[in-house]
Write a structure and sequence with these properties.
Elements (H helix, E strand, L loop, with lengths): L1 H19 L4 E8 L6 E9 L5 E5 L6 E6 L2 E5 L11 E5 L4 E8 L13 E7 L6 E7 L1
Antiparallel strand pairs: 1-2, 2-7, 3-6, 4-5, 4-8, 8-9
Length: 138
């Protein structure tokens, strides 16, 4: 009986946490990688719920992208940008997708051209748990 009670409690805790953690925002990361020119990243965020969702972000920065190779960050979209230091509320309408974009000129932080190889791009919305990543090759 004690085992059954413990299992029931564990299931209730798990189910309760699943309900609290139900995904309301979905993310898809698209990489446009032409043979030359900048690599273009698009983070598509979709409100999967039936109601508007408001996300509170710590600054006016809506999104970010970072490119890494072998675990070393080479580029970050926000590195050369300035943002208002004010809490920003962003509303995602129900069933709609919002796109956030960034372009990487294939140059690392030292100003050198990125060599061929496999890279990873990570995209996220600051102040949220929404993160996604994708590998790509140059």
């Amino acid at each position: 009986m004690r085992l059954l009670t413990s299992l029931t409690l564990a299931v209730l805790i798990l189910v309760g946490s699943l309900r609290a953690e139900e995904p309301s925002l979905g993310a898809r990361l698209v990489v446009y990688n032409p043979s030359s020119g900048p690599v273009r990243f698009i983070l598509r965020v979709e409100n999967l719920s039936g109601a508007p969702l408001t996300v509170s972000q710590p600054t006016s920065q809506s999104h970010d992208f970072a490119v890494t190779k072998d675990g070393r960050e080479l580029w970050r979209w926000s590195a050369d940008k300035f943002f208002l230091q004010t809490v920003t509320e962003r509303v995602f309408p129900p069933g709609q997708t919002t796109a956030f974009e960034g372009e990487w000129e294939r140059i690392d932080r030292a100003g050198k051209k990125a060599p061929t190889g496999t890279y990873q791009v990570e995209a996220w919305l600051p102040g949220t748990n929404l993160r996604t990543s994708r590998k790509f090759s140059l």
